[in-house]
Every structure is written in structure tokens, then in C-alpha cells.
Amino acid sequence: xxxxxxxxxxEIGTTGYTFSSVKVTAGSNEKVYLSSVRWYQSGSAxxxxxxxxxTYVDGTAYDVAVSSNGKYYTTTFPDxxxxxxxxxxxxxxxxxxxxxxxxxxxxxxxxxxxDLGVKGETYGYGITPPNGDTTSGSDDGNFHQSxxxxxxxxxxxxxxxxxxxxxxxxxxxxxxxxxxxNQPLASFTTNVKGETISIAAIAFNVYSANSAGTKNAIAxxxxxTNVAMYDENGKIVAGPVDGTATESDNNGATGTNYYGEIRFxxxxxxxxxxxxxxxxxxxxxxxxxxxxVTASTxxxxxxxATGLTTGNTITVNPNSALTFSQMTIKSGALAISVSSAxxxxxxxxxxxxxxxxxxxxxxxxxxxxxxxxxxxxAYDAVDSSAAATDLTNxxxxxxSNTITTGxxxxxxxxxxxxxxxxxxxxxxxxxxxxxGTTKTIALKCDVLGNVTANRKYFWGIDxxxxxxxxxxxxxxxxxxxxxxxxxxxxxxxxAMTAQTGGSLVVTKDTSSPGYKxxxxxxxxxELVKIRFAAANENIDLKKVALELTNVASNSPQNLVGGKVTxxxxxxxxxxxxxxxxxxxTSSSLTGFIVPRNGAKVLTVKGDLAGISTDDVxxxxxxxxxxxxxxDSVALANGTYGVGVSSGNNVTPSGSDTAAxxxxxxxxxxxxxxxxxxxxxxxSGSVSGKxxxxxxxxxxxxxxxxxxxxxxxxxxxxLGTTSTYGLYTYIDSADTIDxxxxxxxxxxxxxxxxxxxxxxxxxxxxxxxxxxxxxPILIDIYPDKGTTACAxxxxxxxxxxxxxxxxxxxSTIGIEAISGVQTSISVDLEGDAAYPVLLTxxxxxxxxxxxxxxxxxxxxxxxxxxxxxWSPISTTTANSKDDVDWTNGYLxxxxxxxxxxxxxxxxxx
Length: 908
Prior knowledge:
Layout: E1 9-11, E2 17-25, E3 32-41, E4 50-57, E5 60-63, E6 65-66, E7 72-76, E8 82-84, E9 89-98, E10 105-106, E11 108-109, E12 116-120, E13 142-143, E14 151-152, E15 156-159, E16 162-167, E17 174-176, E18 183-193, E19 197-199, E20 202-209, E21 224-230, E22 236-241, E23 261-264, E24 268-270, E25 273-283, E26 292-297, E27 305-307, E28 313-314, E29 316-317, E30 322-323, E31 327-329, E32 334-338, E33 345-348, E34 354-362, E35 370-372, E36 374-382, E37 391-398, E38 401-402, E39 420-425, E40 431-433, E41 438-447, E42 456-460, E43 475-477, E44 486-488, E45 496-499, E46 503-508, E47 516-519, E48 525-535, E49 539-543, E50 545-549, E51 559-568, E52 571-577, E53 583-585, E54 593-594, E55 598-608, E56 623-628, E57 640-643, E58 649-650, E59 662-665, E60 668-674, E61 680-681, E62 684-699, E63 703-714, E64 720-729, E65 773-780, E66 795-797, E67 802-814, E68 823-828, H1 839-842, H2 856-860, E69 868-870, E70 902-906
Parallel strand pairs: 1-15, 16-29, 17-31, 32-44, 33-45, 47-59, 61-70
Antiparallel strand pairs: 2-9, 3-7, 3-8, 3-11, 3-12, 4-5, 4-9, 6-7, 10-15, 13-14, 16-18, 18-25, 19-24, 19-27, 20-23, 20-26, 21-22, 21-25, 26-30, 26-31, 27-28, 32-34, 34-41, 35-40, 35-43, 36-39, 36-42, 37-38, 37-41, 42-45, 46-48, 48-55, 49-54, 49-57, 50-53, 50-56, 51-52, 51-55, 56-59, 57-58, ...
């Protein structure tokens, strides 16, 4: 376990070092106590060279007693000792700090087998550990057979401290100023181990290049003065010194490009650990814009390095040159321009602190931070000389903070034929632009409420400032205090056009719900989504006008209390009540703000009335359609909003919306297609082939079904089908619904289309063998057989229950022609439109007919009559003569064309 094999030497100052480690394992006969351990330090280090030496077991530190000769370190464990269970182990480790003893050795052995105090728990006898296996070697980390030491640990030599120097990112490549103190030049990091190390002298080579990148013939290291070395706390540890034009020795990167050096003759103490140091100085006036300076050094060539603890001479690493970041000489500079944002746009009367322009203050080419105390800008307005006073309370902002308050707020009073120069004075102490960065400030003004529409306002900057920059003192070096010559990019700015108010357009939103069947009594039904789009300003929508469309099939009674609620997402913002008519205007809306040049959707919801024979307020089949009323935009009873900026009333544009509506039903079916057992056809004839499977679930109440229609076709006039039957089951395992018929057959006697035992599909007139067979429509009516093929009854599915259906037929003449494959296709048909109701003849849905044969007849004779069902709206027994029937138009799960087709193919 001894880790010493991985380290032949350790520096003075190393703490918590593991000198040696062994593992004691109890045998299988009894538990044992580990009562003591005596380590023998066979190395040359004295006990005074070590500190905080302790024995560790299971993470617990135990003190050691050191013998008078400083060689034996004994730990006696408390009580009887540390108990080790049979077959288990404990690790013993000796650790400590290396405080001295340079060039000495440390080697903690177990000299004799009896240096481990071990005795049995059961019998109490002392136990001597066995001999080792190794017969030769020394300091090898092995247990020896007969020689001493018994356990010969690895030896570690105490070394002097070490120091490694590396470049640091604390001073990255950057601009530096001319003739300004404390400009960064380079930074480096020292990694010192073991002891503080002093270095008698440190030198850096300096390469100075001109803007073309070649050696600078004018400015040298001699033009870099007052250079000091700072630690990370800002304390000077060497210098200040001045650079020299020539090198006294090779202290940096080799080559002829280097031109002078900076030499510190001070002795610098570098403490243990990682520490960063920075060189700062002043670049003289021989340097010009875009000159560059790069420092380098070779740490091995530093002056004499000495360990302060050991007194030993230390080798400084590395022996290769370190080249630091390049510094670019820059005088103070500032470029001023107008941003392209915000783009030209509309501003509404009475708007507060509208952003007319953004000014970019660019200090990327500056050698020092720039302080800006004022900014001259250009202001112009078009269409009227009096428009200058339309804007008031103009301020400059740095982010969200105004930098022109009190007397520094500008209220434009007049403009000339080509605009006017307006100076903004910043609040003290001004605005600081950090060298190498840019800052954008915003100019914002209030717009009067009585502005004339279509006036245009421009805030820019006049490039003529560039010609008179020597007289402009609004920008100075933050440290030097020198006036900075600006570069100004001429710009008129973007046109901001005044309008007296915003506009509002109303349409049906694309997310508005489509037509669907909804159960009577359902709450919070989405009826329509209305999109409001605002231009020029935020608009606070106050009221909205609505109408019931298709009044022949719905009325306010379809809604509980005639009321709809209005929603902004999940928040209700208002309501409207259709009291006695088909029109309603909402209450005052709360917080429905349509964003400027954006849109917001208002969702209209309603609670549907229930269906009852005692109090007819809604009927199955009613189509409830609520729309936005585009004809009602008056302030009293119509839709309008208020401009948030202008405060003006805004009436919207847009015609009536066209919502799809919801079809109210007492209950309704939900259909789902199921897979058939096999899509293969067997040659010849097969009876009872499953051709289609589906399920129907009754939602919200019992439902009745009177008709199913299947389309059947074949690829050959010889491959036909016959003896059609629709079977019903109460579960997916095909358990027969014996409450209808004993075998589950819906159409007694396999009657279809009102005829008994249809034998085959109708062939193409005059068709020859091998030609495709025309599809036929197989209509299935419920019939229990009281009167043959009379379709006398209905099939009822209880509320919440699911019934499973299989459409079967006999297949005939499959592959009647050798080698010719036969295929058959089958689907359940849907209805493309809601039926045309003959209310005058049969009465409305939901009211029982007193005339036999009424009601269902109008549905079965309609063009769309493939699936006929009833919501059983009344409490009386369901009958096919009730006026309470409809078709399959958009019944959930049943498309308007047909359910997915099943294809069957013979194996040939």
C-alpha cells in the first residue's frame, strides 16, 4: 500500500504527505486487537525536519510518541486496541509535513515483526505476524523474510523548493495610451512549491514594431519608463525602473527583432503557491498610433534564485522564452455615429419617452478610457417649422438610466432650414467609455398630444463636427485629461412619423376551433377566437360586439343565461350576455392590451344549456355559432379601444367573422377503427370472412344507431362477396351482445339494403372476366327478425359503454382464373354534410313525433345518409319514429368520406 514508489523526492513545505502504509488482516480463527504500531524512521532526516506526524486508521488520526534518538514513532491505540473482525482488514498509514531537511531522506519502516502489537480477542495471546517473502532488496516497499527491516518502505528524498514561471491572461492584448502612467505591459504567474524563493534580478526583452509590423526605428525600450512590477494586490514588488535601448544579455526570445530591455535589480521574494504579477509603465512620445510593443523573458536566465528555508540555489523554470501579449499604442480616440436602430416608424401623439435615435460612442481605437461630458446632435423636422416644439422633455439614456436630468433636459424650440445643432450636457461626472469598447446611448422625447399627423422628426449628428473637433472639449482622456479628437459619421437619423392615434383590425384567428359536436351541458366551450391587430400604438380594448349567426338553428337559450365569457389566454377579461336578441356587447374588458404593431387573440367561451323535456332551452342538433359583429363599432354598444399613448378612442376595421360553430347534442357517438384478423384471401369460397372492424362509444348519454353503410369492391367480376352481416360484441374479445340477438347479428337474416340475402356485388355491365367489379354500397339496418328485412328497430349503446362491431361476408370466386390475383377493398362510409332538416314536416330534433314513419325518413332520404344515429334526447323509449335522428357528419372518428379502407389480397 506504500505510495512512496510514485515519488522519489518531495519539496520542503509539503503537507499531509503519506510516508508509509500497511494493511493488517485478521485470520479466520478469531477476531484480533491491534494494540500498537512502532514505525522506524531509517532515513537521514531528523525528527525536527518533520511536523504533525500521526498514524491514521479508518480516517482517524492517532498521536505518535517519538523516541529520544528521533528514530522510533510509536502509536498506542486506546483501550484494548482496534478490533479487527475475522477475515477483515485495517490500513495503517503514517502521514506528516516536511518542514526541513533538504537533501535528507525519509523512510518509515517496520523494523521488526513485533513492531505491530497484535493479540487474539478470544484467547488473549499475542500474535506475531508472519515473515515476508522477499529475501533481498532495500527501500522496495516489501515485507522481508529474515532481514531487518521486516517491512522496508519506499524512501523519499527532501528536495529544495521549486519555481515555474508562465504567461498570464491577466493582461490580454489591448490598446495602451501614450505618455500615460501605469499602462499594462505584461503579466506572468509563478508556481512556487516547498519554500519561498528569492530572485536577485529579473529582466524582460522588449520588441517595438511600427504599424507595418517591422522593427521600430524610433521608439525603443528606452521610451518605456517608470516600469514597476505589481503583485495581485496592487503592491509594487520591484521597480520602478526605466527601459534601456540595448540588451545586456539574452533574457527574452532570441532574434534580431528585439530592441532593448527592462531590468529589475531588486530582489523579489516569491511565496509558495500560484501568484500573478503585472508590469506597468509609461510609453513615451516617441511612440505613435498603431506601434506595437511585445515583452518576453526566459525565466532560467533570471538572477540567482535562493530557497529562503533551505538556503539552496534554485533552478527557475522553464528554460524557454515566454512571450507576452502584444500591446498596441493608441492615443485617445472616440468615434460617434447614429445607429440604424430604431428603424423609421410611427410615433403616436402623447407618447412619453419615445426612442428617436441611438448614438454609438466607439472607443475601440482608444488607448485610454474616454470621459464624455456632452454630445452635440442634429435635430430636424419636416412639414412645418413649428414642428420643433412638438417634442419636449428630451433626455439621453445609458441603458435604463437617464444621464441628463434637471437643467440638462432639452426642450427643442426651433430649427433652421437644414436642422439645428442641439447639445446634450451629461450629468456629472459624465459618461465613461472604456477603451476597446463601445457604448450606445438612447435619445428619448415626449410627443405632445396635439401634433399634426404625418409630421416627420429626425435626430442625427452633423459630420461638420469633424471639422471643428479641435474646439469641442466634450470628450477627454479619463486619466490624461487630454481633449480627444473625435471621428464623426454624418447621419440625418431615421424619420419618425407622427400620427394622432393607432388603428385596430379584427379577423378570425387561424387557431379558432372548427366545427365539432359538443354535449349539451358542457362548460367553457371554445366558440370562436378573435384576432385583434394594432398598429402605431398599444390599444386597450374596452368592449367587443358579438352576434349569434345562423339564427334559424340557435338562440340565446343555447347558452346558460345567454352568457359568453371572454378570455386572454387563461385569464378571463370580460363577458357578454345575449339577453333576448342575437346581438350582445361585452362588459368593459380588463387589461386586454393589444401590442403596438402586434396582435392578441380574444377567446370566446360559453356554457351550453342542458336538454330537458320539461323546459326546452336547447335541442339536439342546434348549431351554436358566435361571431364578432363587424357592423357594431359605436362607442355605446359596439367594439372600440383606447390608444395607450394617444388616449384617443379607436374603432376597429374588419367584417363579421365566420366561426364554424358547435353542434349541440344530448349525447353522441365516438368511432374508432380496429384491425381485422387477416388481410389475406383464400382461394375459392369462404363464409364469414371478417372484412371490417370498428368500435362505437356512447359519450354523455345513451345513443341509438339505425344505419351503417359499407362500400365493397373487387378487382375482378369473378371474385365477389355475399351474405353480409354486421355483428356486435360487448368487448374486444368478441363477447356477443346477446341482449340484441343470440348470435350478435345486427341485420337479421343478413338483410341489407332492404333486400334478403344479397348474393353478390353488382358486376360491371357487360364486363368480361378479369375486369374490375364496380363497388356497391351495403346498408345495414338493425333488425331482430319480427318482420323479415323491415328494419324495425334501433341498436342502443348505453352511456359510457363501448360496443365492438365486425362486418363479415362470404368471399366467392377468389382466384377463379389461374394465376390472376384477386383483391377486395372495404370501408365504413361517412357523411359529407349535415342533413337538410324538414322541420315543418317532422318537427325539430329532440321532440317525439306523433306520426308513425316520421322523423327518420328525412334523414334516410337525404343525400348524406350513410350513418344514421340518435342522441336519444327525450326520456321516452327510443323509436325509429322519433324526430331525433341525424347523420354521421363529423361524428368523432368518422371522416366525411370514409374510414380507412381495408384491403384484402389473395396469396397467388
